[in-house]
């Protein structure tokens, strides 16, 4: 659908894809790399655990050694730093190795300088980072489809915008479900109720399919003909409000015209089920909220 390139001066590939993400952050879709992050954390933990164990054992050994100043290593950094005079630098070498290991995973030079006292903090940071990554939501179907389409536009090279090993990360128009299974989005669309999402996706798709885009000009920012889903959300919001007002009125009218008590009980049960369905479909209500409303 692209009819105008909004980035004529930017090279096709990573530069143009980055420019696209800048103006449309909903397509900021990347791999989670959860497996590699977990593996890195496990290696980090194993390496530091091994160094810690060796360091503690060496500290005990040097503390019980009467040769030179070894018994003072645990009390005075000067003697430990000059342990070469005692002909044995094993404890100092372990400390230096631990510093270098922590330096690789530290965020700043300050952490590297204080590595011995920040061991726990560094491990906590890695765990927190992994937890944050795991909490990122999956991309929306519409945004992922749009990104697949954009990567195969003439402006991006028509066939393959990227030619490296990551060319198939997002899938393709021919195989839309061939994308990596661990995709995440940094800025997901606002979470709407199922009815609004369904209406927005199908309405926009059908408007484009029936050729209505021919009567519209491409956006100056995005370079394509499109429709704002916010307009459809406002319409669905109005439909929801009208429906919420009509259900109680209709139930009262029906119950007024029915005189049989068994029939009234059946109608009340049916409207109760209808309210529950409407709450889930039109209001995105939680289970506790559905139970609270239907039990009232």
From TrEMBL:
Name of the molecule in the record: DUF6594 domain-containing protein
Entry keywords, A to Z: Membrane, Transmembrane, Transmembrane helix
Span of domain DUF6594: 14-296
InterPro entries linked: DUF6594
PANTHER family from the UniProt entry: DUF6594 DOMAIN-CONTAINING PROTEIN, DUF6594 DOMAIN-CONTAINING PROTEIN-RELATED
Pfam families xref list: DUF6594
Keyword Transmembrane belongs to the record: yes
Signal peptide as annotated in the record: none
Membrane spanning residue stretches: 235-258, 265-283
Originating organism: Neocucurbitaria cava
């Amino acid at each position: 659908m692209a009819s105008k390139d909004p980035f004529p001066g930017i090279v096709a590939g990573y530069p143009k894809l980055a420019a696209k993400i800048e103006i449309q952050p909903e397509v900021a879709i990347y791999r989670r790399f959860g497996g590699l992050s977990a593996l890195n954390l496990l290696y980090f933990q194993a390496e530091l655990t091994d160094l810690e164990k060796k360091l503690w054992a060496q500290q005990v050994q040097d503390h019980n050694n009467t040769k030179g100043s070894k018994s003072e290593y645990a009390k005075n950094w000067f003697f430990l730093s000059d342990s070469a005079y005692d002909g044995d630098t094993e404890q100092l070498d372990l400390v230096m190795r631990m510093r270098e290991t922590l330096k690789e995973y530290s965020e700043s030079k300050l952490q590297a300088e204080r590595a011995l006292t920040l061991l726990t903090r560094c491990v906590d940071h890695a765990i927190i980072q992994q937890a944050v990554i795991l909490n990122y939501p999956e991309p929306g179907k519409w945004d992922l489809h749009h990104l697949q389409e954009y990567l195969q536009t003439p402006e991006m090279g028509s066939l393959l915008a990227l030619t490296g090993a990551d060319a198939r990360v997002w899938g393709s128009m021919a195989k839309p479900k061939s994308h990596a299974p661990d995709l995440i989005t940094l800025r997901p669309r606002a979470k709407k109720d199922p009815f609004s999402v369904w209406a927005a996706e199908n309405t926009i798709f059908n408007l484009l399919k029936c050729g209505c885009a021919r009567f519209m000009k491409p956006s100056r920012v995005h370079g394509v003909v499109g429709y704002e889903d916010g307009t459809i959300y406002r319409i669905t919001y109005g439909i929801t409000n009208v429906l919420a007002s009509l259900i109680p009125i209709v139930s009262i009218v029906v119950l007024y015209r029915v005189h049989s008590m068994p029939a009234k009980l059946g109608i009340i049960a049916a409207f109760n089920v209808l309210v529950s369905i409407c709450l889930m479909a039109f209001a995105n209500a939680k289970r506790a909220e559905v139970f609270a409303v239907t039990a009232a």
